[in-house]
Design brief:
Layout lengths: L7 H9 L4 E5 L13 H13 L6 E2 L24 H17 L5 E5 L10 H22 L26 E5 L3 H7 L7 H10 L25 H18 L2
Parallel strand pairs: 1-2, 1-3, 3-4
Helix pairs in contact: 2-6, 3-4, 5-7, 6-7
Amino acid sequence: MQMVDMFYEELEDAKKRKVPFVIPIGTIEYHGYHASCGTDTMVITGVMRELEKTKEMVVCPPIWYGVASYAVAGPESGTIQVDVDAYENYIYCILKSLIYGGVKNIYCVAHHQTEEAGLMPMTLACHKAAKKLIMEYMEDTRGKGWWGSNDYADYYENLGTGDDPFSYIKVIPLLSAEAQHKCGGFDHAGKFESSLMYALYPEHVDLERTKRNTQWFAKNSVETSMELGQHMVQCALETLQDIIK
């Protein structure tokens, strides 16, 4: 279900049943001559489109602008960079509305600088926003000393479950480290990411333009293939089926 298409009663029902709410966490960034600047965001929305066919979930509007950085190219390339502190506060505000609105099963799914599922500025900002919010929410709703009260004597028994408040919001990569290994690799605007995008949104990858790339990270985009892209989509889906619950 797309959140923007849902009516109030449908949203309330999803909250009560703890249906997963998924937020695509993307960027606008230069992806060589051959792939659209929305690649990081679109590969998430594309995989979620496929995951929706087999799993009940609410897909929230994507966060298009992010902490892209100018590591790949400057602003003249079309990359849009948001300062990490401003971004963290923005994510915090979105998550706060959801949590206080009764959503207790949120997944922030990222695909930018997530090699080996490592933590980088954008994903760290999401983690910090989530933990800060949950601490404030629990103190606000349960009072100071909530964790130390006897009401939470079963805290460790519930660790990692839906009853654990620190599991209300999870920040995960679109492709886990395990999925990346199954795919055979991971890159930026190279054959892997380009193939993933090609399988999901073929009109946003121009195979002819791959020949124009001279930068090291995009040179092997000439090896972009539908077969590899479909394999990567399947690897992502298999992992996300288990992670998103």
